[in-house]
Amino acid sequence: MKRLVIIMLTLAVTGLHAQQSELATKYANTITEEDLMDQLSILASDALEGRETGERGQRMAAALLSDHFQSLGLEAPVKQGDQMSYYQNVPLISSKIKSAYLKIGKTKYENFNKNVFVGTGATTGEISGEVVFVGNGAAERYESLDVKGKFVLMIGDNNYRSTIKASKVAAANGAKALIAVRTATDEILEQLLISYRGYLEAGRMTVDTGIEESEFLGMYFLAPSLLKEIVGKPYDKLSQIAFSEDNAGFEKIKKGKVSVSIEKEVKTISSENVMGYLEGTDLKDELVVITSHYDHLGRRGDKIFNGADDDGSGTAGVMEMAEAFAMAKADGNGPRRSMLFLAFTGEEKGLLGSEFYADNPVFPLENTVTNLNMDMIGRNDEENYNGKDYVCLVGSDKLSTELHEISEKANATYTNLDLNYVYNDENHPEQIYYRSDHWNFAKNGIPVIFYTTGSHDDYHKETDTVEKIEREVYLKRTRLVFYTAWELVNRDKRPALDQK
Which of 22, 100, 252, 327 has its CA at 20 to 30 Å from residue 4's CA atom? Predict the structure, then answer.
């Protein structure tokens, strides 16, 4: 009798799984290539002017998203006075550099030449100060150094996060500003300049926290060939000292002097995260969040940066997934857990929309089960993955091994994409785990999966347009996210966090 009961229970569970699989496939198939491209063609059209944060095109895209969520019957979850809204207002400060330079002796190096570019700094006239070499900028380098009110000079690797970390250490020790050499040759600095120039010229943005811009530490990026002019030693000698295990040799480096000047235009602007809420059934207090960013680079002169792949592709995916899950609920097959479909603003300005949401969550972060984030899922990296049906996953195993296993099983069951984990490597130079909106969930202990396909020749160029989207594999990637979400919202238990 006991054996018969076990067999019957096994058959029941197997039947339930088969039913769930059939339902998942049914609603995944409502996400079609045609529907994705219809949404994307509007998002990445010239009419939306590149969706620059705070500009008219971004607000038009926000209206498109909110109208879509409303048409699906999703709830507006944000309380604004006596009304409920699909918008979460994000207050921002825009700080645009009008002119800047760094002067060594009597030689002035204007901003954006091949030797210097300015990241941040106070809105003042010219200020001068002594330069103290701090090696690689690590905290232990400051033990025997007095840098209060001085410029600190560091040699680091070509890594944005390590430079930001070094700037915080410098600020904590009272430094006036940080001068960073991140490259071994001037040519590499020029390549960095190309990457940063449009971002900096358009204006640096931060979330408006009430802290004056002048309170942030200034950051200046320097060509290695100028090191000898400041502290008397060339790059190769200084780099050996910088990456040694102690401060030996620091006393042999003279203290130079520089002057810097930055003049900026500072203004406050408002932008919006856009979200639609789908309430679950028996596990409705728990939440799965599906995200993308809908902002892009706007326009530069007569050039429009349409951002079809970055991140029109992810945003259209969010829109079509919302429609599929809303359809399932209308048919009586709604998710057990609640879902939030969330499109962020300000990602291109430094993950600002997701930072604001994490600091001001509409739903408690402790109830947020997982974040699935899509950013650039419509193209292939032709150099590395030509002809492959693949997607790169980042973060799936960082906080929850169980989430990683759920993801792998969903792919094996439904989509059979080549899952690539090259960017998941902690030592990968692009550090992508920290560079899209999922990071603001992950840093709060929420398991994430970031879906991307890596870079391509049209990244952050006006040539990132709709006709270059690779439709078939784009559809497969979107459906993989849907299938993974379906499992997460309907399973009995949320993915367990790994024990530290």
Answer: 22
- Give yes or no for residue 141 having a pLDDT over 60: yes
Q: What is the dihedral of CA 363, 397, 195, 382, to 10 degrees?
A: -120
Contact 27, 322 (CB under 8 A): no
Q: What's the token pair of residue 488?
A: 């997460």
Residues 83 and 64: their CA atoms lie apart, in Å, by 20
Written as one string, the DSSP assignment of 72-117 is TT-B--EEETTEEESEEEEEEEEEEEEEEEEEETTEEEETTSSSEE
**Which amino acid, 254?**
K
Longest Cα–Cα distance of the chain, Å, equals 95
- As to burial, measured by CB atoms within 10 angstroms (0-12 exposed, 13-18 middle, 19+ buried), residue 387 is exposed
pLDDT of residue 314: 98
Let me know: does 340 contact 365? Beta carbons within 8 Å: no
Torsion-angle region of residue 121: left (phi > 0), alpha (psi -120 to 50) or beta? left
CB 282 within 8 A of CB 334: no
Exposure letters 307-334 (e unless 16+ CB within 10 A, then b): bbbbbbbbbbbbbbbbbbbbbbbeeebb
